[in-house]
Design a protein that fits this description.
By secondary structure, the protein is an alpha/beta fold. The chain has 13 helices and twelve strands.
């Protein structure tokens, strides 16, 4: 307002001069007066003032289950790198896997007129919760906000992800090919959509090989949860444990060590995610690699593309996964040799 008064022009004209990306023509003499007034007043453009004129807040809301989890930290890191270079502010909201908290954050971000909502991790599969979430997202879309899901299905949104089921199937097949037959699976909370997908990949692959997927334990995606589940599973003498995320797999390693079970000589342990702690575990963890930094970056690029084209819809993008083989997995001690099978 001070710059407009000193230059003798409207606030809108000041905004058009100081934010030339809008492409509005301004007379040269007028532009020079505005620039001179801004310099004299040592003016710094207000983000809020820009938003009022451009109808873009340049705010992106990132909703994650647990920002302390390295899995989500790397996803957000990729998002933030692209957002920062494009001049966007990322507000990270931790939902603690609570659907009500998630909805409240979405409502708050809507009040801030966030340009985009990026939902990390799987959705809550309960139908009633889904309807409530859909309602909040529809309200955000009516305000022009772009919404996208990353690393898990969410409310029918366009998703940037790997093939969760196939990744779990590939890891299960790897353990079977090592010679394991008693393979246990530690699932996360089944109300989160990524869990049924990973569990399905495990169960289908076991059954396709003629094996019974009977050793399944429910947990909560946490290190402590992985420990507790492993204590129970060890009583059933599996030769391998596949945890649905790295945090639980690391807990499984700790439980095996406390029980005096050698990994991988007596028990193979594998995870899902390839987080930094998995790489530095003792022994280092065999796991499914997800390009989390790139997933976050691609999500932000998809948002920018949608904003540029004037749509709230994001086309799905699928990135490749791969298995990372480390020291926590090996053939079981009882695995048949090629000679005993008649091989050469």
């Amino acid at each position: 307002m001070d710059v407009a008064r000193q230059a003798g022009v409207s606030i809108t004209t000041v905004s058009r001069v100081l934010n030339p990306k809008g492409g509005y023509p301004v007379a040269t003499a007028t532009r020079e007066r505005v620039m001179a007034a801004a310099a004299a007043l040592q003016y710094s453009p207000s983000a809020l003032a820009r938003a009022l004129v451009t109808r873009r807040s340049h705010i992106v809301g990132a909703l994650v289950s647990d920002i302390v989890d390295p899995y989500f930290a790397e996803l957000v890191g990729g998002l933030e790198e692209v957002a920062r270079s494009a001049g966007y502010l990322v507000i990270v909201c931790t939902t603690s896997r609570d659907p009500e908290i998630q909805r409240r954050y979405i409502a708050t971000l809507r009040d801030y007129h966030a340009d985009a909502l990026i939902l990390f991790g799987g959705e809550f599969v309960d139908r009633a919760e889904r309807r409530l979430l859909d309602r909040e997202l529809e309200r955000a879309a009516r305000q022009g906000a772009v919404a996208v899901a990353v690393a898990g299905e969410h409310a029918g949104l366009g998703t940037v992800d790997v093939d969760q089921r196939r990744a779990a199937a590939d890891m299960t097949r790897y353990l079977i090919e090592l010679g394991h037959r008693r393979i246990a699976f530690i699932a996360g909370p089944r109300r989160v959509s990524t869990v049924p997908e990973r569990l399905r990949g495990f169960v289908d692959t076991m059954q396709a090989t003629g094996l019974d997927p009977e050793l399944i334990a429910d947990s909560d995606f946490s290190y402590d949860g992985g420990q507790r589940a492993t204590v129970d599973l060890l009583r059933q003498r599996p030769t391998a444990i596949f945890a649905a995320n790295d945090q639980m797999a690391l807990g499984a390693l700790a439980a095996a060590h406390a029980a005096g079970v050698a990994v991988p000589a007596e028990l193979s342990v594998v995870g899902f995610g390839d987080t930094m702690p998995a790489r530095h575990a003792l022994p280092a963890l065999t796991t499914v690699f997800m390009p989390r930094h790139r997933l976050g970056a691609e999500a932000m690029k998809a948002v920018l593309d949608a904003l540029e084209s004037g749509t709230t819809q994001v086309a799905p993008r699928r990135l490749p996964h791969r298995l990372v083989y480390r020291a926590s997995s090996a053939p079981p001690a009882s695995a048949p040799t090629r000679e005993s099978q008649g091989g050469t």
